[in-house]
Structure formats: structure tokens, C-alpha cells
Amino acid sequence: MSSQTDSPSLAWDGTRSVYSTLAALFAYGVRAKNALVYSSAYLVFIAGVEVATTMIALSLPLSPAPLVIALLTFAVYVGDRIADAEADAATSPERAAFVTRYRRLFSIGTAAAYGLAVALSILGGPTALAIALIPGAFWILYASDWLPSLGRYFSRLKEILVVNSAVVALAWAVCVVCLPLAYADRAFTPTAAVIFGYFFLDTFVNTEIPNLRDREGDAANGVSTLPVVFGVRRTRHVLYALDLCLVAGIALAFYAGVLDAAMTVGILVGLAYALCLAWFVGRTERYGRLAIAGEAKHLLVVAVVVVLGAVGF
């Protein structure tokens, strides 16, 4: 009788133990997700994938370039989160609180990541080293009060319409395309120019999507972005136009023999995906998720290219 009485109790204890374990795992998962999203650390992996895309498109040999770009991405984006924590409190309070809580840890991490990236870039020679220094220099120009002569309206590059996103896009495209070229000691070819233009415009688009979420805070802080100046609907039209320009440019590059078939199809599939995401602008308020989905497009591109290459397309 005693064993029969204890059986339900033991079963309940076992169920409760499983539930507690699952709850703990879920809590750890949420913390990991917050760390990846709030710090933009997820971009580290995507940055490496973008460099891999460049290396495939240009038939470059393996090099430390993806790792260097990944480290630079962590250093610059997390550094930007730290610098903007106070301003982000109005638009992204959870992210600002998370970054502020771990500010010291992130500061040490960004310094270590940038230092290691610069050290590794020395292996690629003076050109690679110069390119590795660009993100830090651009971040200073992008986020620092260095242009007082332009008055109170445009005290930072980050506040100037189009320039703010273009600075980010330019620095990103230069690093993603030119660093692997520097490691391989290759010239800047027409194919490299096409890939450069692709990453420049694509990064510009991906930079404007988070601005949709931050438009009220940006307006209050005097930051001029496409959503602030033109509104959500017109911003969607601009994103459509930029993505369609990329579609036309990639198609022309293929017909001119500059891009191979696998890379062309991969990029066009990614751009079709980007156009679908642009449709949600103004039709959702989950712009944080939309921004992550936009960045994740590069995973789709490289996956398509690798699969097509494997089947001999």
C-alpha cells in the first residue's frame, strides 16, 4: 500500500523536476537571445558569411578575412550600442538596460576584439591593416561631435539624412570586399565592383529598417533618417526602388559575363526575399525582427550559391 501511495508523489516530483529543467533552459535561452540581439553580436556570424560570399564570387583563397571582419563587427556595433545607450533608452529601453548592465564587460570585449582584428590584419600586409582601421575611424566620424561648423542641426554625421546610412554602408562594403582582396593580393576587378555595389546598397537598406522602429526617438534627438523625413510609406517605396536597382544591376552584370550563374541566382533569390521583407514596412511594428530577417538574407544567399555550386550549376 505504501508503494502505491508514494507512486503518484514520485510521478509528480519527476514531472516537476522536468518542468523546472525546461523552465531553466528556456530562461537561459532568453538570456542568450537577448545577448545576441541587444548587443548585435548575431551580426558577427552574418559578417563572416558576407566575406565568404565575396571570396566565393571572386574565387579568392582561404584567409583570416572572415574572422577579422567578424571581430571588427563585434567591436564597432557593440561599441555603438554602448555609446548610444542613453539615447536608446527612449526607443529601445530593454536593449539600453541590457547594454548598461553589462557595459564594463562589453567595453572590455570590444577593445579585445578590435585589438585582435588589427593584429590579424597585419598578416595581410599594410593594405589589410589600413582597411581594418577603417571601421574604427568611420565610427568616430559617424558618432562623434566633430563638425561644429555645421551648426546645431547637423552636429554629427549620424544626424544627416542619407549620409548617416551611407557612411555605414560604405565602411561595410569596403571591408567586406577589399579586405579579402588585400589578403589574396588581388586587384579590384569589375566583379569586385559589382559585389561592392551590392553590399553598399544592401547595407544601406538594412540600416534604414531599424530606423523605422527608432523614428520617434530619432526625431526627438534631431537625427534625420528616411522614416523621420519622408514617413513610413515613402520609406517603403525607397527600399523597393533600391532593391529593384540591385536586381537590375545584378542581371546586367550576369549578361555582361561579370558574375557567374550560381552567384547571380543566389543574390537574386536574396533580393526577392528582401523585397518581400520591404512589403512589411508600414504593415508591422516588429521592426527589430524585420531588421534581423533582413540581415539573415545573406545566409540564404550563400546557401543557394553553395548548393548550386555543389550540383555543378
From TrEMBL:
Transmembrane spans: 35-58, 64-83, 104-123, 129-148, 160-182, 188-205, 238-256, 262-282, 294-312
Protein name as annotated: 4-hydroxybenzoate polyprenyltransferase
Cellular compartments per GO CC: plasma membrane
Organism: Halarchaeum nitratireducens
Keywords for the protein's UniProt record, in alphabetical order: Membrane, Transmembrane, Transmembrane helix
One protein family per Pfam: UbiA
CDD domains reported in the protein's UniProt record: PT_UbiA_5
Keyword Transferase carried by entry: no
Membrane topology: Multi-pass membrane protein
GO molecular function: transferase activity, transferring alkyl or aryl (other than methyl) groups
Subcellular location: Cell membrane
Keyword field contains Transmembrane: yes
